[in-house]
Design goal:
Layout (H helix, E strand, L loop, with lengths): L1 H20 L13 H5 L1 E12 H5 L4 H4 E3 L10 E7 L2 E8 L11 E6 L7 E4 L3 E7 L7 E11 L5 E13 L1
Antiparallel strand pairs: 1-2, 1-3, 1-9, 3-4, 4-5, 5-6, 6-7, 7-8, 8-9
Length: 170
């Protein structure tokens, strides 16, 4: 009985030491990114990746799922200027150069669907691009996405093609 009590006490002490010995102090994660002000400025399109969403769903090999179409259509000519006034989104201008249109308009007002955690950037209240990620925004990289959908005979929508746009701040 005494041996069992000693083992239980030893395990309790060992467990307590283990639990308290593993506590580490971590610093804060920092201030949240002010997405509106980080978006302000001129952005040059660096790459466009076309994704066959059906091939992704079906698990086809990676070389079938995506294709870099940046150079095929001169997308590197494309620049976008986003203006901010008093911390709020304001005007935008787009210079397509010789590249195809990503959105159909070239100037107007822009906004975000949510200023703290945006999922879309909206141009002239009519066209939108999704944020694929804004994790690299502080480093001057803007990742946007546009998805095309199809509707089947049951009325269900599914993505069939998407475009991933990578912009670099100038």
């Amino acid at each position: 009985m005494m041996k069992k009590t000693f083992i239980n006490i030893a395990l309790l002490v060992f467990g307590s030491l283990l639990a308290t010995g593993c506590i580490e102090e971590y610093g804060g994660v920092g201030e949240p990114v002010d997405k509106v002000n980080e978006l302000a400025g001129t952005w040059k399109l660096a790459s466009v990746i076309q994704v066959d969403e059906d091939a992704v769903r079906k698990g086809f090999p990676a070389f079938v799922q995506t294709m870099d179409i940046t150079e095929i259509f001169n997308y590197t000519d494309y620049t976008m200027n986003l203006e901010v006034s008093d911390g709020d989104p304001s005007g935008f201008t787009i210079d397509r150069g010789n590249s195809p249109a990503i959105i159909g308009i070239t100037s107007g007002q822009w906004t975000l669907d949510n200023l703290q955690a945006p999922t879309q950037i909206i141009f002239a209240d009519s066209e939108a691009l999704e944020f694929e990620s804004y994790l690299e925004l502080r480093e001057g990289v803007l990742n946007l996405k546009f998805t095309r959908y199809q509707t089947n005979s049951k009325g269900e929508k599914s993505a069939f093609l998407s475009y991933r746009y990578r912009f670099i701040k100038q």
